[in-house]
Amino acid sequence: MKDFFAQFDFQSNLLFENLSEPDKQAVENVMESLVVKKGSMLFFECGIPTGIYQIKKGKAKKFKRGFSGEEQIFYIYTTDDVLGYHALLGQERYQDSCEALEDLTVNFIAREDFLRLLNEIPALQQKLIKNIAHEFGVLANIIAVLAQKNQNSRLALFLLLLENRLNRNSPTLKGIDLTRDDLANLIGTSQESLGRSLKQFKELGCIEIDKRNIYIKDKKQLEQLLQVKID
Fold first, then answer.
1. Which residue ranges does the record assign to the HTH crp-type domain (predicted)?
2. What is the dihedral of CA 45, 118, 141, 201, to 10 degrees?
């Protein structure tokens, strides 16, 4: 299915692509390189947005806490992804949080600089509008999966998505490196229940597990759980 992964990918990594060289240079001129330590917050729920971030190295989780204080992860950001612009554009406080899952290198663009770039670069403004519209569809698809698919189907889907997203910039496929707590949170289950599903997938030969790294070995079996064929 040609656009399978796009249905579940924000594609914010494409935001600064295909701009003219002068426009790219204008964007790079206002970027500030920062190092964010593992476990630190890029932004947090109810915080006031001061700018946007582009991840250059590492990965981070986007999540919201429920009324009981439990975390619900709904996206994992990785290299080149751009984030933090929704609240900024809406002139609102953040409605969610973003935490570094490992040491990050990020490019930061201050609020005033980013708003100025949108005014000065029509192509960037158009891409951002298109991207926000696409993200709405992605969130709708994720909500539908969490509500309608059983646990094994949800796990199969997110393993395929994570492998594609985390390895898209790598010449060779690597493992899916997430804590069991974060993976369980992402698919909406408990660690104990996730452990049983992972054991079942391992016995079927779908995956291999090395410590917390998960490697997909038989993609077709995972596709069968979803009743899709991924090209």
1. 149-220
2. -70
Lowest-confidence range among 26-30, 127-131, 145-149, 180-184?
Answer: 145-149
Residue identified by tokens 């582009």 is 54
Residue 1, pLDDT score: 47
- Give 1-6 contacts, CB < 8 A, sequence gap 24+: 1/228, 1/229, 1/230, 1/231, 2/231, 4/228, 4/230, 4/231, 5/161, 5/164, 5/165, 5/230
Q: Chain-wide mean pLDDT for the chain?
A: 92
Q: Is 203 exposed, middle or buried (0-12, 13-18, 19+ CB in 10 A)?
A: exposed
Return the number of other C-beta atoms located less than 10 Å from residue 103's C-beta.
Answer: 13
d(CA 116, CA 125): 10
- How far apart CA 27 and CA 19 sit, in angstroms, is 10
